[in-house]
């Protein structure tokens, strides 16, 4: 079987718990925070993970190593989004009441280099899961992680749930395809499928290939004398940046409603990469101009227009609001990197 924990234990947990969640992308930034949230709400949480020689899954390792949690309320299952047979086996074993589909290639810039695999991982994987959910004997509420990149060169700003899709990258195109598929299955088959159209959301758990994490890490290393410069692409690129911890709460709220809908999850404010850089250096009391240099190699082939979301619908209908500010986010990320350096884990 695909379970890392054993079938008997899983069956008992499914029977004893009112809600059972299955998460794809559980080892990612959002997956790890969502897992913590659902465990706090006494869910049985199951995650799909790829088989790998490295058993250390850093973002959820604190949960996997907790004997009170792992194997009792948290379970991991080997699987791959390209393998429909194994996914169906996992669904049969877990019988989830909620599915959070977060997995897939998530780097916009990288999608220009690997467009085919990006579209496969995002588009076809979502279709595969929709088909599996459609065949389940029990009702499954399906959260699909859409993205602001579906708007790309948006014709209006701020963007809402009704803004026309104009993606400007292979990643945006793949997400647009998956988002529309979710809507088609909701309207055609009556499935409970909600698209969370999330704008950029960051945290100390963000991958190192993302610019926000890169900035926080290098600034911390500069502050400790381990590096001398920060190389970046376009400093004037603007994004609507929020906190990942806040955004996973929005995901959960969408699946607690009686009827499914799509929601923009955003702060409603934009900041430039330069703003992020200056805020990061302010945390360590250093002048950004002394250390920042432009490297055209990091510029993207195309940049989306001003992407900023209107959170009005989710605020009114679900009562969701961000709990932290842009400055809070930057400080949190830089301080986490400083702690890592000071602990000797990033030298």
Question: What this model shows, in words?
Answer:
This protein is α/β, with parallel strands linked by helices. It folds into two domains: 7-202 and 242-265, Rossmann fold, CATH 3.40.50.720; 211-239 and 269-342, UDP-galactose 4-epimerase, domain 1. The protein has twelve helices and 13 strands. It has helices at residues 7-16, 29-40, 61-64, 84-94, 108-111, 115-134, 170-189, 211-223, 244-254, 273-283, 312-318, 326-342; strands spanning 20-24, 44-49, 74-78, 98-101, 141-147, 193-198, 201-202, 230-232, 238-239, 242-243, 263-265, 271-272, 292-294. A seven-stranded parallel beta sheet has the order 3-2-1-4-5-6-11, sandwiched between helices. Strands 7-10 form a two-stranded parallel sheet. Helix 7 links the parallel strand 5 and strand 6 (193-198). Helix 2 (29-40) crosses helix 9. The chain is globular, with a radius of gyration of 20 Å. Residues 6-15 have low confidence and may be disordered.
Main sheet record? 7 strands, parallel
- How many domains in all? 2
CATH class of the largest domain: Alpha Beta
DSSP strand content: 5-15%
Number of helices: 12
Sequence of strands across the biggest β-sheet:
3-2-1-4-5-6-11
DSSP helix fraction = 40-55%
Q: What is the number of strand segments?
A: 13
Low-confidence stretches: 6-15
Instruction: Indicate the CATH topology of the largest domain.
Output: Rossmann fold
Quick one: CATH superfamily of the largest domain?
NAD(P)-binding Rossmann-like Domain
> Structural class, from secondary structure content?
alpha/beta
The value of Rg in angstroms is: 20 Å
| Outline | globular
Do you know the CATH architecture of the largest domain? 3-Layer(aba) Sandwich
Mean pLDDT: 90
**CA(first)-CA(last) distance:** 41 Å
Order of helices and strands: HEHEHEHEHHEHEEHEEEHEEHEHH
């Amino acid at each position: 079987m695909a379970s890392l924990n054993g079938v008997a234990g899983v069956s008992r947990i499914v029977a004893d718990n009112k809600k059972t969640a299955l998460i794809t992308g559980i080892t990612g930034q959002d997956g790890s925070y969502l897992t913590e949230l659902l465990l706090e709400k006494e869910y049985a949480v199951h995650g799909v993970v790829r088989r790998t020689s490295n058993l250390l899954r850093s973002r959820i390792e604190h949960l996997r190593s907790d004997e009170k949690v792992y194997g009792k309320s948290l379970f991991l299952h080997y699987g791959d989004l390209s393998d429909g047979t194994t996914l169906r086996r996992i669904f049969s074993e877990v019988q989830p009441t909620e599915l959070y589909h977060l997995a897939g290639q998530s780097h916009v810039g990288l999608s220009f280099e690997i467009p085919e695999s990006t579209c496969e991982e995002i588009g076809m994987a979502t279709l595969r899961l929709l088909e599996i959910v459609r065949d389940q004997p029990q009702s499954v509420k399906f959260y699909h992680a859409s993205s602001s990149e579906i708007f790309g060169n948006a014709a209006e700003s701020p963007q809402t749930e009704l803004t026309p899709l104009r993606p400007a990258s292979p990643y945006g195109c793949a997400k647009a395809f998956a988002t529309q598929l979710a809507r088609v299955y909701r309207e055609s088959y009556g499935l409970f499928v909600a698209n969370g159209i999330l704008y950029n959301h960051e945290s100390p758990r963000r991958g190192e290939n993302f610019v926000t994490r890169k900035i926080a890490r290098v600034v911390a290393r500069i502050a400790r004398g381990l590096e001398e410069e920060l190389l970046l692409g376009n400093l004037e690129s603007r994004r609507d940046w929020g906190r990942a911890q806040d955004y996973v709460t929005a995901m959960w709220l969408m699946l607690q409603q009686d009827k499914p809908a799509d929601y923009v999850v955003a702060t409603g404010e934009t900041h430039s990469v330069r703003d992020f850089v200056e805020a990061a250096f302010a945390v360590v009391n250093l002048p950004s101009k002394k250390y920042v240099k432009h490297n055209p190699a990091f510029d993207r082939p195309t940049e989306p227009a001003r992407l900023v979301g209107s959170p009005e619908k989710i605020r009114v209908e679900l009562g969701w609001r961000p709990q932290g500010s842009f400055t809070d986010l930057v400080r949190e990320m830089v301080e986490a990197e400083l702690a890592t350096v000071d602990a000797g884990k990033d030298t």
